[in-house]
Here is the input.
Amino acid sequence: MTLSAPARDLLVRLDLLRSVGPRSARVVLRSLAGLELLRTYRAHIYRGLWEDAAAEVGADVMDGGSGVLEVSLGGRSTLVQQEVVSLDDAAAIEVSFDKPLVHRMLAARGLPVPTHVELGRTGTAGLPALGPCPWVVKPADAGVGAGVTCGVRTPAQLRRARLVARRFSERVLVELEVPGESFRILVLDGEVIGAVRREAPRVTGDGRSTIAQLVATENDRRLAARGQAGLWLLRIDHEMLFTLRAAGLGPRSVLPAGTTIAVKTATNQNAAHENHTVHELHPDVRAAVVASAKAVGLRLAGVDLIARSVTEPLATTGGVVLEVNALPGLHHHALVSDENSATRVAVPILRKLLECP
Here is the structure.
């Protein structure tokens, strides 16, 4: 039987609420309520990034409303809306959303990608070829980390993660989870203009609070910082449940004082202090990310790598190109642990947009 999208959404929500319990469910609902506020903070932070870049190149900024800024210099102008800029054509952007297609394009050029299989609506044909778990389950054609569940280890978890992914796409991709650290590398017209190492989100116990309460406290901290501590809230979802379960924990567990744990494997909901500017890339890594952007046809791309290190070749570390993202978030490079080391990536992007030296 094929479930409708609303039915899948309802099943995912009910499964999650049943798993976390009524007290932790309140944290889930609070995080949803705070997302709208963070959207406002996000717009403010991006405006600051573009105004800083405009000042650097001597351009003027005019607010066009609805989050759109018009940046002008010497008779030339461009429109920007947060991370959305007019450098790439629609076809290349559309291709970047299709993860299995991107994997095939990169592999055809000799670039390392994770072992993967696209699942049909039912069954698990091809799954044994992935090798031993853990696996990552994600929509095959959605962005910004939507519907992604890492740390999938059992058939029951696979069924639940598959349902989560299908909230965002009829197509589901399963990848073998690659050990290593997460890196986002920004490529513009064949040059690397920024790189960050992204840690998984963590909480630290106080000996009294449950993990769910620690998550709520962290979310309150991010909201109080008006986005400067991170532009996402931590959500208690299936990926968090699976990550905690692998450590023998759950949302209602109480951590000893001073004990720090990762509550997720994916990094998209981490905090600013968990992002670190990277200044050194091995030439082979640099060549791989540039080739990845070129393969997809993107002038501006955020290339996600998983590797033990980026100061050695990917072939040495067993690293892979995880995704090639169009319209990449610039905030990843601004909201970092040491703000003095942040890379002002909006500056070279604006120079390209305005065709100025």
Q: What stands out?
A: The two ends are 59 Å apart (CA to CA). Residues 5-113+179-354 form a domain with the D-amino Acid Aminotransferase; Chain A, domain 1 fold (CATH 3.30.470.20). Residues 9 and 84 are 28 Å apart (CA to CA).
